[in-house]
Amino acid sequence: MSLIPSFFGNRRSNVFDPFSLDIWDPFEGFPFSSTVANVPSSSRETSAFANARIDWKETPEAHIFKADLPGLKKEEVKVEVEEGGVLQISGERSKEQEEKNDKWHRVERSSGKFLRRFRLPENAKTNQVKASMENGVLTVTVPKVEVKKPEVKSIEISG
């Protein structure tokens, strides 16, 4: 854990990970952020829930992404592969309805849009991506191109 305070929010992504393309809004939290013309509105909107936690594991057969998305239905999540081999996982968690008689003591759960992008390696079969959702966990499986091992032929030595 870092002893240096983060001036850029609660970002725990690895800046040295070349495959991670997190969406981050440097103007988040500033009062003028909605009036900044140069920052696209999609960037401002996705920063609200950009902290969707995703694990990426590589097995000999595939790249497997697991995202914890509690409370979301599969209809509220979108998985896409863009040209150039970029996997994009996005969705939106709606804010809970507030009643006039409700008194909130604590609000810790995030709501809003989220968007995560990952550049897939060359060995990914982007046309065979599969996704499933079970118990609030999204699993995206990207098969890998099979690497053929060179055939070795044994030569008998005479003499």
Characterize this entry briefly.
With 159 residues, the protein is mainly beta.
Radius of gyration, in angstroms, nearest whole number: 21 Å
Following the backbone from N to C, one meets helices and strands in this order, namely HEEEEEEE
Assign the structural class, choosing from mainly alpha, mainly beta, alpha/beta, alpha+beta, or little secondary structure: mainly beta
Helix % is under 10%
How much of the sequence lies in strands comes to 25-35%
Gross morphology is elongated
Which regions are unreliable across 5 or more consecutive residues at pLDDT < 50? 4-12, 32-49
Number of strands: 7
What is the residue-averaged pLDDT?
A: 76
Q: How many distinct helices?
A: 1
Give the termini distance in whole angstroms.
67 Å
Neighbour order of strands in the largest sheet? 1-2-7-6
Largest sheet: 4 strands, antiparallel
SSE layout and pairings?
Layout lengths: L40 H6 L7 E5 L3 E7 L8 E6 L3 E8 L18 E8 L10 E5 L2 E7 L16
Describe this structure in words.
This is 17.6 kDa class I heat shock protein 3. It comes from Abeliophyllum distichum. Residues 45-159 form the SHSP domain. It holds the Pfam family HSP20. Belongs to the small heat shock protein (HSP20) family. This protein has one helix and seven strands; from the N terminus they run H-E-E-E-E-E-E-E. The radius of gyration is 21 Å and the shape is elongated. The protein has one helix at residues 41-46, and strands at residues 54-58, 62-68, 77-82, 86-93, 112-119, 130-134, 137-143. It starts with 40 loop residues before the first helix and ends in a 16-residue tail after the last strand. Strands 1-2-7-6 form a four-stranded antiparallel β-sheet, with no helix packed on it. Strands 3-4-5 form a three-stranded antiparallel β-sheet, with no helix packed on it. The longest helix is centred in the first third of the chain and has 6 residues, at 41-46. Residues 4-12 and 32-49 have low confidence and may be disordered. Helices cover 4% and strands 29% of the residues. The protein is mainly β and 159 residues long. A hairpin with a 3-residue loop joins strand 3 (77-82) and strand 4.
